[in-house]
Design a protein that fits this description.
Length: 344
């Protein structure tokens, strides 16, 4: 692994350097983070680095140039690195990438571009990287996703485009991603999902839509992704969920609906195995017979029970939803057994 030496101290003009110091300076690399011969992993976090290192040996399989002043990449930056598997370029100043920059590394598996200044990517950037498995674009300035980016990524398993400025998704944009297991779209500006937004994602197990502006969802939003196990919808603006929207998700294990504007809920049929981990805190729940009967039947593990309160009807207002659903006296017994008048 290459070390990142500190820059040498500049001497005032006219000063005569001692012979030993001259010898040491002659052995020091002229640029920060110079690669060593025959290295396989190169790491540089030198804040003053402004150009991509050159002279990396062809044996290199992983490059990490992070937290530097790197602002540009030449189209030939990765030339001569046929075995490169991982490229980590997070927390730099990259505002654009050449379309041909990845062509010399067809065996690339991991590309991390977290926290740069990218507002767009070339349409053909990933045309020669059909072995890519992990792609992280989190914390950039992307305004849209291009379907062309994903046409050549049949092996992609992890896609993270969180914390960008995406306002909408093109229909069926993820259709070629048959191997995708995790998709993070959190903390963007999505107000809705187009029908078929998840088309092609039959292997998807984790979907994060936290912190968008979602006010509604298509009735069949999750039908193309029946393998979903983890679904995060917290911190949106959902008021009503379409009937049966979670029914296709028979493998669901974690569902987060916290801090929306929901009053009623439907859940997928309870499969054998562990109970559903459910967070429904911070919503104005109507603790009426359908919701209470659902919670007794599905028996999920409720997270943040103290913040999961009934907003109505008046006789349950302010009470914990879990406590009301588990109580024997809910006002929902058969007519002949009621101890209280029905909820208004």
């Amino acid at each position: 692994m290459a070390a990142c030496p500190q820059p040498s101290t500049m001497m005032p003009p006219g000063r005569i350097l001692p012979p030993l110091l001259l010898a040491l300076l002659a052995l020091s690399p002229a640029a920060p983070c110079s690669p060593r011969p025959n290295t396989t992993r190169f790491v540089c976090t030198e804040p003053t680095l402004s150009t991509f290192p050159t002279g990396l040996p062809p044996t290199t399989v992983a490059i990490s140039v992070e937290f530097t002043a790197l602002a540009t990449l030449l189209p030939t930056a990765l030339a001569g690195l046929p075995w490169l598997r991982e490229l980590h370029l997070s927390s730099n100043r990259l505002a654009a990438l050449p379309e041909a920059v990845l062509r010399p590394v067809p065996t690339l598996r991991v590309l991390d571009l977290t926290e740069n200044l990218l507002a767009d990517l070339p349409a053909g950037l990933f045309a020669g990287t059909n072995h890519l498995q992990h792609l992280v674009l989190r914390g950039n300035r992307l305004r849209a996703l291009r379907p062309a980016w994903f046409r050549h990524l049949p092996r992609l398993q992890w896609l993270d485009v969180a914390a960008n400025t995406l306002a909408e998704l093109p229909p069926e944009v993820f259709l070629p991603l048959h191997s995708l297991r995790s998709l993070d779209l959190s903390r963007n500006h999505l107000a809705s999902l187009p029908p078929g937004a998840l088309a092609g994602l039959r292997a998807l197990q984790r979907l994060d839509l936290e912190g968008n502006g979602l006010g509604t969802l298509p009735p069949a939003a999750f039908a193309p992704a029946p393998a979903l196990r983890f679904l995060f919808l917290q911190d949106n603006a959902l008021q009503v969920l379409p009937a049966g929207i979670f029914v296709p998700l028979r493998h669901l294990r974690v569902l987060d609906l916290a801090r929306n504007h929901l009053r009623a809920l439907e859940l997928p049929p309870r499969p054998p195995g562990p109970a559903l981990d459910l967070d429904i805190s911070g919503n104005p729940w109507a603790c009426e017979c359908p919701l209470l009967a659902l919670l007794r039947r599905v028996a999920p593990r409720l997270s943040a029970a103290r913040d999961t309160l009934c907003a109505s009807p008046p006789r349950h207002q302010g009470q914990e939803v879990a406590a009301v659903s588990q109580a024997g006296d809910t006002g929902c017994e058969p007519k002949g057994d009621r101890q209280h008048p029905p909820d208004p």
